[in-house]
Amino acid sequence: MAEAPGSNPGRSTKLEYRIESEKMRIAIISDTHDNVYAVLEIIEKLKEIKPDLLIHLGDIISPATADMFKDFKTVFIRGNNDGDINQLEGIAMKNKQLFVNEFETNIDGKKLLAMHGHRSAWLQEMIKSGRYRYVLYGHTHQVRMEKINNTIVLNPGGHYYMSQGGIILLDTSNDKYDYIPISGGEKIESNNI
After folding, report:
1. Cys-Cys crosslink for 97: which of 11, 43, 74, 189, Cβ 3.0 to 4.6 Å?
2. How far separated are the first and last CA of the chain, in Å rounded?
3. Which residues, at least 6 apart from 24, have a Cβ–Cβ distance to it below 8 Å?
4. Radius of gyration (C-alpha) of the chain in whole angstroms
5. 138: phi then psi, degrees, rounded to nearest 5
6. What's the pTM?
7. How far apart are CA 10 and CA 22, in angstroms?
8. How far apart are CA 84 and CA 183, in angstroms?
9. Could you tell me whether strands 134-136 and 151-156 are parallel, antiparallel, or unpaired per DSSP bridges?
10. Residue 130: C-alpha distances to residues 148, 151, 154 (Å)
11. pLDDT in tens, 134-180
12. At residue 23, what are phi and psi to the nearest 5 degrees?
């Protein structure tokens, strides 16, 4: 069950999306900005690592780019630069995926919140709230992997001009995560907790 976090007007309050496993390997990407070269590299890596779920944290931009992820169980988060929202929603629906403003779920008793992150005050409030084990966001195009109190905060970076981006692979069974660079992104040490 995905629920809309509080204090976010204009959203539906509940969305159905079955999580098949109590513990998951989640691939996290963001801000692909129609960079087809990066998307093709991401897809090749995803085929290798075979995640249980892919979360794209926004700024996909076009429906054609979203459709490239059709072979993966995917939650797309709406970014502040995403283009035709109706078409993006249609592509997600056609591919049995989600396209939402934010995504909240519970995996093995651990709450996860995924958002684009362009509302920085709300992002900081959610990180500091202590309600979530995982807070995932994009928007800044800067990789971030850290633990704040009991919350693991992850941002895989972006794939726009001069950005550093990759895939973060999160294993919820042990709270470990690894960074996989894409399109020449430099290797960043993983902060396994």
Report:
1. 74
2. 26
3. 51, 52, 53, 107, 171, 172, 173
4. 15
5. -125, -130
6. 0.86
7. 30
8. 26
9. parallel
10. 9, 7, 15
11. 999 999 999 999 999 999 999 999 998 778 899 999 999 999 999 99
12. -120, 140
The C-alpha atoms of residue 139 and residue 188 are separated, in whole angstroms, by 19
CA distances from 144 to 21, 70, 152, 177 (A): 26, 27, 10, 12
- With the C-alpha atoms ordered 55, 126, 120, 11, is the resulting torsion angle positive or negative? positive
Domain 23-182 belongs in CATH node 2.70.98.90: no
**Calpha distance 101→159 (Å, rounded):** 20
Residue 127's identity, in one-letter code, is I
Q: Which residues pair with 54 in a beta bridge?
A: 27, 74
**Cα-flanking dihedrals φ and ψ of residue 90, to 5°?**
-65, -45
Range in 99-113, 117-131, 156-170, 172-186 the model is least confident about: 172-186
Rounded to the nearest integer, the mean pLDDT of the chain is 87
Residue 153 DSSP symbol: E
Which pLDDT value is given to residue 188?
A: 55
Cβ proximity of 133 and 150 under 8 Å: yes
For the chain, the structural domain boundaries read: 23-182
DSSP state of 187: P
